[in-house]
Design brief:
- By secondary structure, the chain is α/β, with parallel strands linked by helices.
- Among the domains are: 8-94, 2-Layer Sandwich (Gyrase A, domain 2), CATH 3.30.1360; 173-251, no CATH class; 431-546, Isoleucyl-tRNA Synthetase, Domain 1.
- The protein has 21 helices and 15 strands.
- The strands form four sheets. It has a five-stranded parallel β-sheet with strand order 7-6-5-11-12, sandwiched between helices. A four-stranded antiparallel β-sheet has the order 1-2-4-3. A three-stranded antiparallel β-sheet has the order 8-9-10.
- Helix 8 (173-189) packs across helix 10 (226-251).
- The longest helix is centred in the middle third of the chain and has 26 residues, at 226-251.
- The two termini are 40 Å apart.
- It binds one RNA strand of 77 nucleotides through helix 2, strand 9, strand 10, helix 18 and helix 20.
Length: 555
RNA sequence: GCGCCCGUGGCUCAGCUGGACAGAGCGUCUGACUACGGAUCAGAAGGUCGGGGGUUCGAAUCCCUCCGGGCGCACCA
């Protein structure tokens, strides 16, 4: 933990610890932690400060721990006990009121609770999905859509100025292949014999598009000049495919701020400008009639072609221009989310940025592993070539947006995601989405009930100190952790941690609710329990919103 | 062959900028409301963290090596 905790209680303790170390004229260890110890009996928090200082000071850790323990101001920190444990941990136990007295502050923050200033307004551009408009979005894209969008929400909540961007590959060979494939479908549907090009697209979606075209204007295109016809298929197909992509993403609750056209880079001469910049910096050379970028100078395995021997650009060339464009737009940091099948592309991209003269550290690439679909215990195989694949749209329609978003973000992106279609569809305790949502619905119901019985919540009537033990205290602690979860998840670019936290929060709340009658108690107690429930509801709403999942009032 | 990711209880995973006897969920077994929603809760069994070395006061976490799985190694995108 290289930075102070965000949790109000832990933060105060952290400051006290830092002060105590300072008093001894000792340095604050970079890797100092303040976390719950493994055993509950050991206290509420433990720090490894003495262990770390021991190395630096060359003194026995137990002695250092002892001195720190005595130096801590127990009263002002709300400590109940401070113990030193071998090999040099300092275990801290807080008075229950130290926790509960933080609750009014949390309540006062309202929906803003959990916001942290990790980003300090840093401008960050997150590019994700960016699927070619040549076919439907599949489940892999769905994962990046959900993860990317949630990550953006998370970063924004953590104090970054975030832009969500989709790069449209509307130039180049693939789009021509799409046009030719669409034309082939068009001809086939009109009874002509036509072949989809060898590397073309065989998906059903293009057949449907062709049919749509015929329904609208019949076979008039057949009479057109081939070039005009090709351009039409290209432009129209692109426009239609992008519309569908937007709709599909929308259905998953994913919105982009910028839809960036690759073609605009050509039109604005930016590809040439980028290559000129590289040339001026001496990073380009010619060989075998092709133009190469010396990416090996910046850590890549081999140099890469930017202009092919036939004079056309590789995919890489406009992509260099694209990243240059993003940097020139003033973003402090760029995040690209790629599928694992593109990870080999990262070194050259990074090299290109360095070759252009920018700090390659400004580019962060998140590599995500594949999604495997399971149904009836069997893997559902996907294949783009045969056109047999489960689309993002099918997935959303099958399991619903809520389930889809939760399941797609629940795992670390480093792990292949096994998506159990049956589980995602069940409305039972096996499905974690419902577990979390149910907690929220339950709280909403509780508040409705309170309204009816005239026990409306008034913060001034609550005696928070009554929440200082058992299940209630567990909920209090979970509530206080939220800002740190946000900070940690944002820092690690790991939205799945939020899923885990919300599940845990829902869990401790369910336990609390089950064991404690909330309404109809003595006023200060009912009010305190009601207040705690409100806080949990507030956090669930906040967290679920980040994940793009609704927090239902009833289910 | 080289590179990246993964290998944690029956299953799916968390934890991995090192911290004290490894955590969840599902599944299995045993229990709990004639008061706020049982889509809930309480409890039990189950793992020498793929194998082997090393670094360290301390390793699931770092390094080396081996084994297994996924992905990638284009003048395709």
């Amino acid at each position: 933990m290289a930075y102070a905790p965000q949790d109000p209680v832990r933060a105060a303790l952290w400051d006290g610890l830092v002060q105590a170390i300072g008093h001894q004229q000792w340095p604050i260890p970079e890797a100092m932690t303040l976390t719950p110890p493994p055993q509950e009996e050991q206290g509420d928090y433990a720090t490894n400060a003495a262990l770390l200082l021991a190395r630096e000071l060359r003194q026995p850790p137990m002695e250092i721990a002892q001195r720190l323990a005595t130096a801590l101001d127990r009263r002002s920190l709300g400590l109940a006990s401070v113990e030193v444990a071998p090999p040099g941990f300092i275990n801290l136990r807080l008075l229950p009121q130290t926790f509960t007295s933080a609750l009014p502050g949390v309540l006062a923050k309202g929906e803003a609770y959990g916001q942290v200033d990790l980003g300090q307004g840093e401008r960050i551009n997150v590019e994700f999905v960016s699927a070619n408009p040549t076919g439907d979005l599949h489940v892999g894209h769905a994962r990046w859509a959900a993860v990317g969008d949630s990550l953006c929400n998370l970063l924004a909540f953590a104090g970054y100025d975030v832009t969500r961007e989709y790069y449209i590959n509307d130039a180049g060979r693939q789009i021509d292949l799409m046009a030719d494939s669409l034309e082939a479908r068009y001809r086939q549907l009109l009874g002509q014999s036509a072949e989809i090009p060898p590397d073309g697209y065989h998906g059903e979606d293009l057949r449907a598009l062709a049919q749509e075209l015929i329904d609208r204007q019949g076979d008039v295109l057949l009479a057109e000049d081939p070039h005009v016809r090709h351009d039409f298929f290209k432009a129209w197909g692109l426009q239609r495919k992008m519309a569908v992509i937007r709709e599909d993403l929308e259905a998953l609750g994913v919105h982009f701020d910028v839809w960036f056209s690759e073609r605009s880079l050509y039109e604005g001469k930016e590809v040439e400008a980028a290559l000129d910049q590289l040339r001026r910096r001496g990073a380009l050379y010619e060989q075998d009639q092709a133009v190469w970028l010396r990416t090996t100078a910046y850590g890549d395995d081999k140099d890469r072609v930017v202009i092919k021997s036939d004079g056309s650009y590789t995919y890489f060339a406009p992509d260099i221009a694209y990243h240059r464009n993003k940097l020139e737009r003033g973003y402090d940091r760029l995040i690209d989310i790629f599928g694992a099948d593109h990870h080999g592309y990262v070194p050259r991209l990074r090299a290109a940025i360095a070759a252009l003269g920018y700090d390659a550290q400004r580019l962060e690439v998140l590599i995500g592993q594949v999604v495997r679909l399971f149904q009836d215990g069997q893997e559902v195989k996907m294949s783009k070539r045969t056109g047999r694949l489960v689309t993002l749209r099918e997935l959303t329609e099958l399991v619903g947006k809520e389930s889809a978003r939760y399941f797609l973000t629940m795992r670390s992106i480093n792990t292949a995601l096994d998506f159990d279609l049956d589980l995602a569809r069940t409305q039972s305790n096996a499905n974690p989405v419902y577990y979390v949502q149910y907690a929220h619905a339950r709280i909403a119901s509780l508040l409705r009930q309170a309204e009816q019985s005239g026990e409306t919540f008034h913060a001034s009537q609550a005696d928070w100190s009554l929440l200082g033990e058992g299940n209630a205290l567990a909920v209090v602690k979970a509530v206080l952790t939220y800002p740190d979860v946000i900070a940690e998840a944002a820092r690690a670019r790991a939205p799945h941690r939020l899923n885990a936290y919300l599940y845990e929060l829902a869990g401790v709340f369910h336990a609390f609710y089950n064991q404690n009658r909330i309404l109809g108690q003595a006023l200060p107690l009912t009010q305190a329990r009601l207040g705690l429930s409100i806080l949990v509801g507030q956090i669930l709403r906040s967290g679920l919103r980040i994940l793009g999942i609704t927090a239902p009032e009833q289910m």
